[in-house]
Amino acid sequence: MFFDLSPLEIVVLLGLAVVLFGPDKLPQAAASAARFLRQVRAFGENARADLRNELGPEFDGLDLQDLNPKTFVRKNLLGEGEQLRELRDDLNRDLRTFSSAEDVPAARREPSALATGERPPYDADAT
């Protein structure tokens, strides 16, 4: 909900604010808190605008949210990136067409059972 606070926690915080500030100073405290939050938000917007101006026109499409590590991982490693999505689709298409047993290389085929008394193959280069 609001900063991961339950409704009961919000009510307790409001009651605590009334006890701490009193009913007469509570509106002034709320107004100053709102003013502080507006100033912090304006500071962030100004910093973002300054960064966009300093980077220049070649970074117009840059979304600062994409630089967040969680967003970057979700988009690029978990398949939401355009190039990775195309690569994943190509690999899936190749795997679907590669499904027949004749196309599977000998190294990837399931080993066949050996007849009784038959010796397993020996590869001198592998040992």
TrEMBL record:
Under the heading InterPro entries, the entry gives: TatA/B/E (IPR003369)
UniProt topology in membrane: Single-pass membrane protein
**Record localization:** Membrane
- Write out the ranges of the annotated region (Disordered): 98-127
Tell me the keywords, alphabetical order. Answer: Membrane, Protein transport, Translocation, Transmembrane, Transmembrane helix, Transport
User: Which is a Pfam family this sequence falls into?
Assistant: TatA_B_E
* GO CC aspect terms: membrane
Q: What is its main location?
A: membrane
A biological process term (GO) from this entry: protein transport
Protein name (record): Sec-independent protein translocase subunit TatB
